[in-house]
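User: Fold both of these, please.

Assistant: Here is the first one.
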Amino acid sequence: MGIFNSVFGKKGDSVKEEKQIPWIPLVSIEQLDEIAEKSKTRTQLIFKHSTTCGISRMVLNMFTGSYSLGDENDIYFLDLHAHRDVSNEVQYKFQVMHQSPQLLIIKNGEVTYHTSHGAIADTDLAQHV
């Protein structure tokens, strides 16, 4: 039963608790002005995700698993396929070349840090917020 239990678990084993990120859906271009304004008093983060990309899904899972910030900032989730117009405007407004997946940190109306792909999971967010 040892191998069976190690694969399927034993009765009474605790279920691994998943971290919950307080995502704010980024669905409109108008929100970008709000993000820029709010960034003057509170750090804003944007996570750009491609729902059809395996790498983006993997990075999202790694990011979620390592996320440790409290509620001192706002974190937006942008589905690139559902809101391509918003993604294009993010690139224009914040002057950061589009990549996917991508993480942007915004303070005082400007991107102070951005990264993409696997480097997102390696980012020490506390250092940048």
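And the second sequence with its predicted structure:
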Amino acid sequence: MTTQLIRGTQRHHWRNEWLESWQSFPATGNFDLSANAHGVLLVHNDDRVDAGEGLDMHHHHDAEIVTWVLEGTLHHRDSRGHRGTLGPGVIQRMSAGRGITHAEANASSRRDGESLRVVQMWIAPDHTDVEPGYAERDFTEELSAGEPVVVVSGLPRDAGTTAVPLASSHAALHIARLDRGCGATFPASPFGHLYVASGAVVVDGVGSLEQGDAVRLTDSDGVRLTAGEAAEILYWEMHASFGLP
């Protein structure tokens, strides 16, 4: 197993008047997403959006876009007629396919002043130019047990489970909310991406990680960690690399 530790301060940083984006893979500007990918993970942005602000309607294609809110409330609408809000505990998967247009914004008004913090991740799909799709599910209850939960997956083993289906048969996202002193184990896979969304953990064979830190794993035989304080962990289990069948 090989590991690459990416400290939160080492991420690509982009900011404008209302958005601050910390990017594990450079995504803002003229970057080659496939060249920077790890496994089939193309984008992993941790964004903070000011109240009353957001992105107007914009276009995506041929990506599985997975969104996870950490703080605040996100308002979503798209060209397929889906409209609503997402808060912590609700996973959203938008399959861009042959093309979809959407807008996303902080649902809080400037008067209310509540910040939005959201992690958005793009996964390469198995096939291009397919029918766009949308799904979401609330995992708050499952996560309260303190064990890792598979929230989106295209792996055959997860078919028929509560995981939101993903149009990539090579990837699954595990999320864990851990109390201090509690441990979690994530499965072996050719590629893995561990992200500390909040809190602090100690990862076996790697060391101490804090909010914003990430580990990229290759030929992983499994990952074991212990929370040094209450923590929220996002882990991508991946069984292929971008461009491979």
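The radius of gyration is 17 Å.
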